[in-house]
Amino acid sequence: MSLSQLDNLYRQMILEHAKRPHHHGKLATADKQIELHNPTCGDVLELEVKLDKEKRIEAIAFSGTGCTISQASASLMTDEVLGKTPTEVAEMVEAFSEMITQKTTKDYEVLLGDAVILEGVAQFPARIKCATLAWKAIYQAVVEKGAKEDE
Fold first, then answer.
1. Which residues are the signal sequence here (predicted)?
2. 149, part of any domain
3. For 93-110, what is each residue's pLDDT tens digit?
């Protein structure tokens, strides 16, 4: 497959995730919830997470509005973090941040799965905040202390 065909495939996958996002909606019950805004683009992301007894992500959902990149990134992120621990989520968020800002040239597919299709966003600095919004939300929800907990 040529590089232009691969780029086209990645674009199609991003568009598909934006049009038909995975895990979009609300959870019946959530242990953690967070709302983040990207004032640059106007993206709004509400994230809800349910953890199991081992603190693994048992269920996840997002809602809100945003550009194609933010919605696709949220969809891809929810697919990839399901079943992960806070430590694993922290590693993934760090890797995603490195990938999207091209601070290293690692092979990110092992940690990020299909989310590596967003690597090309690094070529568009104005879209980096759009792509990282969902990843910041999951980090704040399950890794950082003080995330809002539903009782």
1. none
2. no
3. 999 999 998 776 678 888
Burial of 145 (0-12, 13-18, 19+ CB in 10 A): exposed
CATH number at 57 reads: 3.90.1010.10
* pLDDT tens-digit series, residues 44-90: 999 999 999 999 999 999 999 999 999 999 999 999 999 999 999 99
Number of independent structural domains in the chain: 1
CA-atom Rg of the chain in angstroms = 15
Contact 139, 94 (CB under 8 A): no
Alpha-carbon separation of residue 54 from 47, 77, 119 (angstroms): 20, 20, 31
| Domain-located, residue 150 | no
CB distance 130 to 70 below 8 Å:
yes
CA distances (Å), origin 7, targets 3, 13, 127, 147, 148? 6, 10, 17, 37, 39
* CA–CA gap between residue 106 and residue 25 (Å, rounded): 33
Domain assignment of residue 68, given as a range? 3-142
Residue tagged 């759009």 (tokens): 130
